[in-house]
Each structure stands twice: as C-alpha cells, then as structure tokens.
Write a structure and sequence with these properties.
339 residues; H-NOX domain; globular; DNA-binding transcription factor activity
C-alpha cells in the first residue's frame, strides 16, 4: 500500500491561511520538518502525516479550534492545483463534481477515504467516505475538506445558496454556530458520515468560467499528474489503490484495472508475479480488508456488503469471509457488538 499524500498546492494553502491568522509560518514548517522550498512545486507530494501535523499545530498556535473551517472557506482554484483548474473550466457544477471523483487523488491520495456521490429523490449526497482505518482521523482536516468543497462550489457558480444538510462524524471544533453560519444550515455533528447534501437541481448550475477548449487541455494535464503521482509506487500498491477506489461500485476486472494502469492485462499479471502476487490474491486480500471495515464501521447488511465487494450473492461472500477469517460475517459482527 502506498503512503497517503497531499498536494504541495493544498499544503501551501493551509500554510498561507495559518499565516493570515497570525501563525509564524517558519516555526510551523520547522516543527513539522518541512522546507518551504518543497511547496514551490504545486504537484509535489507531501506526506499526509505532515499535513495533519500542520493543521493540528496551526489550531494550537492560532488558538482557533475551527481553523479547518477557515482553511476550507478560503479555498480557491489554486488551492487544488490542476483539479481546481479543470473544475473551473467545466460546463456545469455536476461536471465539476465528476472532476473531484476522477482527479481528487491529486489533492488528497489516501487509502482511508474516497469521494462518494449518491443522487436520488431530488438530492445529492457528496461524501468524503472513510473506507479503512489505515490513517488517523483528523477532525480539522475533515472540516477543511467539507468547507472547501462548499466554498469552491459557491465560487464556481457565483452563488451562496445554503445546503440542505451537512453531516460530520466528529464533534464541533469550537463554536457550532460558526459551522451553521458558514454552511447556511444546521450541521449534524457525531453523524455516521462526513457529507454535504444539496438540491439535485444545482447540478445544472453553469460554471462562470466554463471554457470547453481549455478544459480539454487541462484534462490531459490532470491525467498526466495523476499518473506521475502513482509512478513511484509498486504495481501492487497502485492496484490496491485502484481497488479501494472502485470496489464499492462492485465492478472490478483485470482488464479494466490494467487499462487504468496503462498496461495490458498480461503485462499487469507479469508485473504482479514479479512482486510475488497474483491479481486474484490482491483482489481477495482487499475484499477481506474492506469487508472487515464495513462490518465494523457501517450498518450495511451482509448482502449490501457482498454487492459492494463484487460478490453476486451473500452466500458467496460469507463463504469467502469464513475461509479467510474462520467465522461468518454475521457472527463476526455479533462478536464486535457483544465486546
């Protein structure tokens, strides 16, 4: 599994925000062991643990527990690098959201979360979905993510329309009224997810800076940056990252994932063999890791989990889980609840 990273562009945005609120930027950088020169290249990858350390230290130094909210509120296209640029040249807010799903890893690349979008009943749920426990939870970072999505979306369409709902897993960081004021609706804290909910009609809102020709060029650049982000890592690490991203949709295949890795299925199999694994082994390992997470952290039924992991029937999932863990999924969940 490759390490979690953030773009230098976003880390630089956090640093600039901290300095605007009275923090000593050089002291912050020295404390987390990061040189300012490394932030000059917006596509450079910064370890996620350094971003978390920067956020948490800025909270203490500024005396502002809601610092993450301030970071998000100040987001502009440059904060997200090429993702910001490709989003602001999209035609509609809906198309811009699809850019977040496609290129979000350029800003935050973590094995612990993914962007999840659900559309139905006239509403859109945009969730920063936590899917593993490999990375520590950082409330300040989650505030920055949700507030950033909101501020950027408002900037793109030139409207401050209030949201329908905001849900956060953690408690309010400081005065809860500051959250309600920014989002334009009551925020549900200690909720089961980190998500924004807004009217489906907003997906058709036109982007003020829409530019089809520039957008097409930026898509190529975003694809190149995404490829460079993964290039240093092993084939197994890159495959696991893609499986984490695509598994909840229930559709993964050797051919499809090989294509995303810009190689033929045969080449992918050969490279995996050179690292001592096979596609089926990596797939089953990831399935069981995600199954463990879903059983521990969600109320999804065994059938729902089976479908999210690509099994056609709950019985097939239960058989695979029992072979791996020595216990059925249902009994595994019962032992967790009785503990």
């Amino acid at each position: 599994m490759h390490p979690a990273t953030a773009s230098a562009a976003f880390v630089n945005h956090v640093l600039n925000t901290a300095e605007q609120y009275g923090c000593d930027g050089e002291l912050l950088l020295n404390e987390i062991g990061l040189q300012r020169e490394r932030l000059a290249d917006p596509i450079l990858r910064i370890p996620m643990h350094q971003l978390r350390a920067l956020l948490e230290l800025a909270v203490r130094m500024s005396g502002l527990p809601h610092f993450g909210l301030l970071v998000g509120a100040a987001v502009r296209p440059g904060s997200y690098g090429v993702l910001g640029a490709v989003s602001m040249t999209s035609a509609t807010l809906g198309e811009s959201m699809s850019m977040i799903r496609r290129f979000g890893k350029i800003v935050f690349d973590s094995p612990s979360s993914q962007t999840h979008i659900v559309i139905g009943d006239g509403r859109v749920l945009l969730e920063d979905q936590r899917i593993t426990e490999l990375e520590p939870y950082c409330a300040c970072q989650q505030d920055a993510v949700l507030a950033g999505w909101t501020a950027f979306g408002r900037w793109l369409i030139g409207s401050s329309a209030p949201l329908l709902e905001v849900q956060m897993i953690h408690a309010a960081q400081g005065d809860a009224a500051l959250y309600d004021e920014f989002f334009g609706c009551p925020v549900q804290f200690n909720a089961p997810r980190n998500a924004l909910v807004f009217p489906e009609a907003m997906l058709a809102a036109r982007i003020q800076g829409a530019d089809p020709r520039t957008h097409k060029s930026l898509l190529l650049e975003a694809d190149l940056q995404l490829g460079r982000s993964y290039a240093p890592f092993s084939v197994i690490g890159r495959l696991r990252a893609l499986l984490i991203e695509h598994m909840p949709g229930g559709e993964v295949s050797l051919e499809g994932l090989a294509s995303e890795l810009a190689m033929s299925p045969r080449t992918l199999q050969r490279k995996l063999a050179a690292e001592g694994e096979s596609f089926s082994q990596v797939l089953e390992t990831m399935r069981m890791e995600l199954a463990d997470h879903y059983l521990r952290r969600t109320d999804s039924s065994v059938m729902e989990i089976a479908l999210m992991l690509g099994f056609s029937q709950a019985s097939a999932f239960s058989h695979a889980f029992r072979q791996s863990r020595g216990i059925s999924p249902a009994d595994f969940r019962k032992t967790l609840r009785s503990a």
